[in-house]
Amino acid sequence: MNKPRVLLTEDSASLAVMYRAYLRDELIDLEHVDSGAKTLDYLERQWPDVLLLDLMLPDMDGMDILQQIYEQGLNCSVVIITAHGSVDKAVDAMRFGASDFLSKPFDAKRLKVTLANILKMRRLNQLVHGAHDHNRESYFDFVGNSVAMQRVYRVIESAANSKATIFITGESGTGKELCASAVHQASGRKDAPFIALNCAAIPKELMESEIFGHLKGAFTGAVSDRKGAARLANSGTLFLDEVCEMDLELQSKLLRFIQTGSFQPVGSSQTEKVDVRFICATNRDPLEEVRQGRFREDLYYRLHVIPISLPPLRERDDDVLLIAEYLLARVSEEEGRHFRGFDKKAQQTLRNYDWPGNVRQLENVIRNTVVLNEGEWVSRAMLPSPLNDLQLMPNAFKPPVQAVEVTQIDPLWKQERRAIEQAIEFCNGNIPKAASLLEVSPSTLYRKLQSWENQV
After folding, report:
1. Upstream peptide bond of 386 is cis (omega within 30 degrees of 0)
2. N or C: which end of the chain has fewer CB within 10 A?
3. Across 132-136, 225-229, 244-248, which has the greatest mean pLDDT?
4. Cα 97 to Cα 290: distance, rounded to the nearest angstrom
5. In 3-state terms, what secondary structure has residue 292?
6. How far is the C-alpha of 65 from the C-alpha of 73, rounded, in Å?
7. SS3 273
8. Among 206, 211, 264, 260, which Cα is nearest to 233's?
9. How far apart are CA 441 and CA 41, in angstroms?
10. How many CB atoms lie within 10 A of CB 235?
11. What keywords is this UniProt entry annotated with (predicted)?
């Protein structure tokens, strides 16, 4: 019954009139604003289904607006419009969840087709995931509704149906294989194989055979022909976990495979061709591996097309409690226990801990607790070390507040201005990032900056 809301951000009045004419007969509610600040004001009040966003705005870079939408996990599809189109800008836009990229000039048909495809995809996603995707507590095998995870979900959705290679980074235990699986399940390849290889778990002398397969007699122990992961993943997805562990010689063969889609099994002179979507992951800093000469630079740039950075558990707000409740229910059922949840001190302990091993460590803690204890509610004493050794009252160690003389207190507006200017300087002029640190809307900062300029 409700028509999709579309917001057009375009500072050129003549182009805005032309785009509105292009979309005149479409079944949408179209609104137009001519600046970045007005766009941010609009986003504070409501979310459009689609934002047609010009990058070159008079008051800010449109990429800052896209980044703000991405960081807040807003359920809004973004089409970037710019006269300065390039592959680099397209990739940057996809990193922050853009759905498409239009280079000026474009005709009515191109705009209509782009918009129709995005609205169709949104309707399908709503059917699959429900109407409140912007605040979902789970996504495929992920559990979590933090802003950090909403960003991850949006990038997965934006990138899933592309063939572009995805490079997942994150600490051990953050769920890199879950992420790769989610990309596969959200894509058009979901009914084809998902093949995962851990490059750190396979001896390097066997790694080439694991990826490309081998013929009988190709080496000692090759008693029969073997299909490799490349052939098994045909029409589907090949996930290479801990790819930075691969030796340099095999990296060059992997590069050729990615470039051509062709490979030779070990011991064969015949070339095979397959259709594979590549996803890789590492818990290292891949650029540092390149600098140290352990990872080929050309392979890095071939793989690092759409990066997904998985946040550590300590940066996921109260996701730790959601995941812990989910694991407690699952493990209790497996072990024949009857736990119903965590008491308040146990919850506080789970929140306070840094979780260096991330979700994998949390799962081990929950299993240990369930196996070694009985009852309805998990107490702090039931949790294994070091969790049951944590201090629950960090405020007890805060230094005493010193008395401040009245003459030292500045007017509130001066303190506010100083705090804002320090935050912007700290963020190297990135106003959306400064606003995030100050926990205010970017449009609030833009308004204040403009009012200060008018006072001068």
Report:
1. yes
2. N
3. 244-248
4. 27
5. coil
6. 12
7. strand
8. 211
9. 9
10. 12
11. ATP-binding, DNA-binding, Nucleotide-binding, Phosphoprotein, Transcription, Transcription regulation, Two-component regulatory system
Confidence of residue 270 (pLDDT cuts 50, 70, 90): confident
Q: Report the 10 Å Cβ neighbour count for 36.
A: 26
d(CA 388, CA 391): 9
d(CA 98, CA 79): 6
Q: Is 382 helix (H, G, I), strand (E, B) or coil?
A: helix
Fill in the amino acid letter for 353.
Y
| Beta strands in 89-186, from DSSP E residues, in sequence order | 100-103, 138-139, 142-143, 166-169
Residue 194's DSSP bridge partners are 237
Give the model's pLDDT for residue 402.
Answer: 47
The angle subtended at Cα 307 by Cα 301 and Cα 308, nearest 5°, is 155
Question: What's residue 334's pLDDT?
Answer: 92
Please report, in angstroms and rounded to a whole number, the separation of the first and last CA atoms in the chain: 50
Longest dimension (CA), the chain: 88
Helix (H, G, I), strand (E, B) or coil at 303: helix
Helix, strand or coil for residue 330? helix
Q: What is the pLDDT of residues 91-126, one digit of tens each?
A: 777 777 888 888 888 899 999 999 998 888 877 766
Q: 408 is written with which tokens?
A: 């030292």
Question: Taking the CA of residue 323 as centre, how many other CA atoms within 13 Å lie in the half-sphere pointing to its CB?
Answer: 30
The span from the CA of 131 to the CA of 267, in Å, is 53
Task: List the one residue out of 291, 216, 204, 286 whose CA is nearest residue 253.
Answer: 204
- Other C-beta atoms closer than 10 Å to the C-beta of 370 total 22
Here the tokens at position 55 are 């990058």
Which residues have a Cβ under 8 Å from the Cβ of 129 and sit 6 or more positions away?
136, 139
Query: pTM value?
Result: 0.60
CB 96 within 8 A of CB 66: yes
Burial class (CB in 10 A: 0-12, 13-18, 19+), 178: middle
**Which domains, from first to last, does the chain contain?**
5-129 (3.40.50.2300), 142-311 (3.40.50.300), 314-397 (1.10.8.60), 406-455 (1.10.10)
**What's the CA dihedral at 210, 212, 218, 223 to 10 degrees?**
50
Place of tokens 């030779």: 264
CA 232/CA 276 separation, integer angstroms: 10
Count of C-beta atoms within a 10 Å radius of residue 322: 18
